Amino acid sequence: MAWIYILRGSGGRHYIGSAVDLDGRFAQHLRGHTATTKRLGDKIEIVARKEVATLSEARKIERMLKAKKNPRLAIYHLKQ
Hints:
globular; three-stranded antiparallel sheet; GIY-YIG endonuclease; 29% strand; alpha+beta; 80 residues
């Protein structure tokens, strides 16, 4: 199983990602081990997530959501 997730930072910016271990990956984000999420600010929260069968499927959905360039639409899509 794998996850697609969307983070929101204290500054209102969003990050879309995928992972096999969502808890472990989120912990990495919180510790600042991920350069792309350092720009989100001090407080980071998961605002949407969806479990899928494979990491390959998760990455495909991640690319599709990033192409939309609209975090609200991406969040809506994951909550469906």
